[in-house]
């Protein structure tokens, strides 16, 4: 989501094992700033499975995963923002998990996903449908959910999650983050100021469903 050549930060990182996108403070699984590429690299894993994530530099990372547990890995920016993000690559999942633009805002504290592809959608909390929107990049369905007294980038908090789920899966293209932020605001879902934002591969165990697969993703940074 290898670390010795970079400046590593002790960060709060995505915890996908018990619920997608949940955060947990953990030493030994830092996010880091790849100074060669000017990108923010996030790598987290938990459980007894095989989770491999490699930052190849130049805006490209690879993953291979299988077994019980979960991981989140990706490249992006810190802080995030209203970017137009271009990416391409390969993504071959089985089971629960996402290929998504993933990030956080503060004040209010919001965790958000723009889901581009997946095998099994398995949200940790019930989703509430908020509508859909279509623009030149495609059609997305909007949802929200609430996590109560869960770990976050600000410690144990209650916070909302915002979701844009693409109706036609893809692995590569352009994500205009501002368009999604505007769509969420149009249905009453407000934002604060941005923390980190990554183009992430995520896999996790959900009950009897176990995730496996691989990806190779390049982000135009």
UniProtKB/TrEMBL annotation:
Signal peptide positions on this chain: 1-18
GO biological process, one term: xylan catabolic process
Protein name: Endo-1,4-beta-xylanase
Any GO MF annotation of the entry: endo-1,4-beta-xylanase activity
Catalytic activity: Endohydrolysis of (1->4)-beta-D-xylosidic linkages in xylans
Catalytic class of the enzyme: hydrolase
Sorted UniProt keywords: Carbohydrate metabolism, Glycosidase, Hydrolase, Polysaccharide degradation, Signal, Xylan degradation
Residue stretches making up the GH11 domain: 27-215
PROSITE patterns, per the entry: GH11_1 (PS00776), GH11_3 (PS51761)
Pathways involved: Glycan degradation; xylan degradation
Highest rank taxon of the organism: Eukaryota
Active site: 111, 202
Gene3D superfamilies with a match to the protein in the record: 2.60.120.180
Family classification: Belongs to the glycosyl hydrolase 11 (cellulase G) family.
Record-listed E.C. numbers: 3.2.1.8
